[in-house]
Automatic annotation (TrEMBL):
The keyword Iron-sulfur applies. The lineage of its organism: Bacteria, Thermotogati, Deinococcota, Deinococci, Deinococcales. This is Iron-sulfur cluster carrier protein. ATP binds at G103, K104, G105, G106, V107, G108, K109, S110. It holds the Pfam family ParA.
Amino acid sequence: MRDPALDAVMEALKTVNDPELHRDLVSLGMIERAEVSGGVAAVKVNLTTPACPLKGKIEGDVREAVMAVPGITDVVVTFGAMVRAPSQPALPGVKHVLLVGSGKGGVGKSSVAVNIAAALARDGAKVGLLDADVYGPSVAHMMGQGAAKVTANAERKMQPIEAHGVRFISMANLSPAGQALVWRGPMLHSAVQQFLKDAAWGDLDYLIVDLPPGTGDVQLSLTQTVQVTGAVIVTTPQDVALIDAARAIDMFRKASVPVLGIVENMSYFVAPDTGLTYDLFGRGGSRKLGAEHLLLGEVPIDMEVRKDSDAGVPAVLAHPDSVASAALTQIARNLAGQVSVRSMAQSLQQSLADLPDQLTVV
């Protein structure tokens, strides 16, 4: 016999929408379990990412909807998470490849990539980080593993190094320290292929790729080698950086890679002695890139971020309560949310494509 109270709870949950996907939790399959005992409703929501940026709102909306059911005196909401893979996963075991790029060097792209990866891993996602800046690799140092060496496993695949809950590979861990690489395009393409397909990445929700600056061979090789979910553009607010960021956006457009958002780094500076805010480079300049590109967040200039990078610990872990770390954490969650939105859109498109051309009504 069906439980009328449970049926009423499920009907109430049909009125709760995911704030980003704009569909109700029941039709999205996000209600893993619902139970009613002694007037207390227990609901487990399976989020589309452990780094859901609107988890608090979902919890509040669930509580409000279920508490309105007659006879319910309390609601206990718990969460699980499962990152949904696209119909064609990027690599075996890897659900999403996310590129972090910039039109020019010196905008803090690698620092942003490292902190995004660490923040997603801390939230519970399975994360990999590929340092594709072959000529100027810095990820190994920022992860505190500059002296480590990449080894091969029993299947003769490269075994990523693990630090701070993130699996990563960097050319810095494959070549002698301080040695310059003088490679032409075909060698870069071969290296990118090996990093992606000859590495034992295992099961990953997200593989973050720290690209070299500009719009060159590595970017082209990546977009031709693997199915990319989307790209993040890192820029600083001043016009000279925005001009190059616009070129990077155009490159991804031509390569059919969606730009999931913009990160404005070095956006402003808060004086530690007075608390006054200074817009050293013209805060908000990234909005000139167009309203069609989501601003994932603004990261202030913060000496702790630089110190933490030099010390080999991502700032989101070393100083999680700082303004810069809070901004980077929110950027990571906003990015995860955009990936969920895109995955759902692709799923709906695939469902429509699978429908017969003509439906017969009986």
